[in-house]
What we know:
Helix 4 packs across helix 5 (107-114) and helix 6 packs parallel to helix 7 (160-167). The protein has helices spanning 5-8, 35-45, 59-69, 82-92, 107-114, 132-139, 160-167, 221-230, 238-249, 251-272, 291-295, 319-335; strands at residues 22-23, 76-79, 97-100, 119-121, 142-148, 173-176, 197-202, 215-218, 283-286, 299-300, 302-303, 312-315. The chain has two domains: 5-30 and 252-335, Aspartate Aminotransferase, domain 1; 49-249, Aspartate Aminotransferase, domain 2 (3-Layer(aba) Sandwich). The strands form three sheets. A seven-stranded mixed sheet has the order 2-8-7-6-5-3-4, with helices on both faces. Strands 9-12-11 form a three-stranded antiparallel sheet, with helices on one face. Strands 1-10 form a two-stranded parallel sheet. By secondary structure, it is of the alpha/beta class.
Amino acid sequence: MKIRKEVLEFRPYRVLEGNYKIWLDKNENPFDLPLWLKEEIFWKLRGLHFNRYPHITSMPLREALAEFLGLDSSNIAVGNGSDELINYLVRMFEGKYIVTTPPTFGMYSFYSKLYGIPIVEVPLDENFRIRGDEIAEKAKDALAVFIASPNNPTGNLQPEEEILKVLETGAPVVLDEAYVEFAGKSMLDYVGDYPNLIILRTFSKAFGLASIRAGYMIADSSVVDALYRIKSPFSVSSVTMAIAQTLLEHYEVVEERVKFIMKERERMYEELMPYAYPSDANFLLVKLDAYNYLLDRGIVVRKLSGRLQGHIRITVGKREENDEVIKALKEFAKEL
């Protein structure tokens, strides 16, 4: 037996594990579902046939999302997390390479490297904004362009006019809107105008359903059809679909928590100025090399590297968690 050299040399995705009191490193929603909503979900699960496969193309959840978004189910695909969809999108189109805009979400490059697909990087400018003209120049030979808005890990929305410059090239543009609920601004209305626009979203952040692994894609029906030609069948479980559908039916719970997180985000930003950057997501980028300092106090945040060496990314948590982070970072800054 011989394992591919590329696999053996691959750096796996890792997260810190251990017994720490505050976890603010994965951009999770800090709130679990209320008990009454869990009870409703449990009741629905009683009616599932656990001996049967789920719908082969996740149609129950696709139809629920279509109604929620005012679209047709033919414009929606559902994945076992949006990561599964990225895995397919890097292989689905013709082209010589993918284009990314670092610093950005690492899974675009992760899957491309896994399949030996070259990566062309067009770095964000000094304000972490995309360079639409430069990306457009590279897009003509690209199999796909990946843009995150709001961007992870910097937290900022990308200018609509810059994204449109890239869309005008006709190249597939994968716009990752994982944090869109915290930004209040989306490119969803452009899907009908640009058949090359593919929007990714997730149930892991605003919906607070990171544990069930559910993401979805909004795109032209031809793109959705192509995806389902190659996508693993039955990949989204009946349990996952039932839980996600229930949250769509009770979206007021999501909205209430999003409002709280946005309010806390702004409070944290004001408290941590001038080290914190403005954010349109549920986290803050902070220019303080305080990862180990916080870890010693039982607080886990995300340590960044490369261009963002010396920065940390902090998920907005519960108020008392945020208070501890603010206090610790102020003490760290004072020691500097």
